[in-house]
Amino acid sequence: MTYPFSLKRLAATGAVALSLGAAAISSAFAGPTLDAIQQRGVIKVGVGTSPGFFAPDSNGKWQGFFVDFGRALAVTVFNDPNKVEFTSSSPQQRLPALQAGEFDILLSGVTQTVTRAFKLGFHFGPVVFYDGQGILVKKSLGVEKAADLDGATIGVQSGTTGELNIADFFRKTGKKYTPVVIEDSKEFVAALESGRVDALTQDSSDLAIRRSEFKNPDDYVLLPERLSKEPLAPAVRAGDDRWLEIVNWTVYATIQAEEFGITQANVDEFLKSEDPAIKRFLGVDTSLGEAIGLDPKFAYNIIKAVGNYGEIFDRNIGPNTKVGFQRGYNELWTKGGLLYSPPFR
Ligand SMILES: N[C@@H](CCC(=O)N[C@@H](CS)C(=O)NCC(=O)O)C(=O)O
After folding, report:
1. 38, 59, 129, 160: most buried by Cβ count inside 10 Å?
2. Whose CA is nearest to atom 11 of ligand 1?
3. What is the pLDDT of residue 15?
């Protein structure tokens, strides 16, 4: 039986990478996207504009839940959370821009769908946020459920799954609505405040954030129904397995760390652990890194610089932030949620 490359060669390239010591990733394992990133010295990430998920702070430094996964990627590639450049792009423009090579990855609340995979040519990393589509209405409308919106004018963002799902919903229920299709997110949000539309529909997390930004949030209600499943995942161009795997295992590192109870604050303590699984994960045992062509300490570096999944969640969108989300489905599988890391071995 022949293998693409022999185990002996794998071990040899790993050893070379270690002896050079400089690059976080052995070039023998690079793909076109990683090559371009390493030449450029920075990862280009497409994001959105919802504070808590992605927004520049008062110093212009990007902050947010999705932003932190971009920083984690920069740690995997460069061992530097700042070697990443964030640019906001509308839902309509972001996938074509990714395809055209303007971004290396989208971390912008993109839903994984079969059309985007097969027809549009994108691959998705692990789901980082399980969401569902919601409807935000003015309280004064007196509406309690989506079905009450018969005849309503509803704002939708162009190019989103939400645009399609709301059409399905009204078709299914046999009721009528008038869609107002808006590309720009500021204009989209303003349409509800100004009364141009009766309701907005989008990922419910996005609507909850938008609501919290309104002058009078209490004048608006997020209806209880979720019209769809919106698994939000990192999107990359199809055809570059190596880059996809780097994205996959960067996200998994944050989840696995939380499963182990490893945090930014205690990760150095864990370096002393005698547990073989933790030794492998943190790169104390270097064999794993050598085998996969990543810095054996990439997971350690990520947790040290950015923290585990729970820390990323809590810091940006958790109960003690303005956004105030509960973990819900975005909780570890061991606590009733859907987050699960494949084994680091
Ligand atoms: N998940 C939907 C919607 C994507 C989407 O519009 N996401 C929000 C953030 S969760 C967004 O980007 N809003 C526009 C913006 O922030 O500029 C899709 O993939 O089509």
Report:
1. 160
2. 48
3. 40
Q: Ligand 1 centroid to 299 CA: how many Å?
A: 29
- Which residue range forms the structural domain that includes residue 217? 133-228
- Whether 121 and 17 map to the same domain: the answer is yes
Among residues 184, 204, 228, the one where a domain terminates is 228
Q: Is the CB of 48 under 6 A from ligand 1?
A: yes
Closest residue to atom 10 of ligand 1, CA basis: 109
Q: Which pLDDT value is given to residue 292?
A: 80
52: left (phi over 0), alpha (psi -120 to 50) or beta: left
Q: What are phi and psi of 179, to 5 degrees?
A: -80, 140
Atom of ligand 1 nearest to the CA of 88: 17
Give the pLDDT of residue 219.
Answer: 95
Of 90, 265, 85, nearest to 184 by C-alpha is 90
How far is Cα 33 from Cα 316, in angstroms, rounded to an integer? 28
Verify that 117 and 252 share a domain, yes or no: yes
Q: Is the CB of 50 under 6 A from ligand 1?
A: yes
**247 and 118: one domain?**
yes
Q: Ligand 1 centre from 176 Cα, in Å?
A: 24
Average pLDDT, the chain: 92
- Total residue length of the chain: 345
Query: Rounded to an integer, what distance in angstroms lies between the CA atom of residue 67 and that of residue 52?
Result: 9
Q: Do 221 and 311 lie in a common domain?
A: no
Please state the atom number of ligand 1 nearest to the C-alpha of residue 48.
16
Both structure tokens of 219: 């004048």
Cβ–ligand 1 contact at 160 (below 6 Å): yes
Q: Ligand 1: which atom is nearest the Cα of residue 113?
A: 19
Query: What pLDDT, on a 0 to 100 scale, did the predictor assign at position 290?
Result: 80
Q: What per-residue confidence (pLDDT) applies to 21?
A: 40
> For the domain that residue 176 is a member of, what is the CATH number?
3.40.190.10
What count of other Cβ atoms lies within 10 Å of the Cβ of residue 79? 18
Residues in the chain predicted with pLDDT less than 70, given as ranges, are: 1-30
- Number of domains the chain is built from: 2
Domain membership flag for residue 2: no
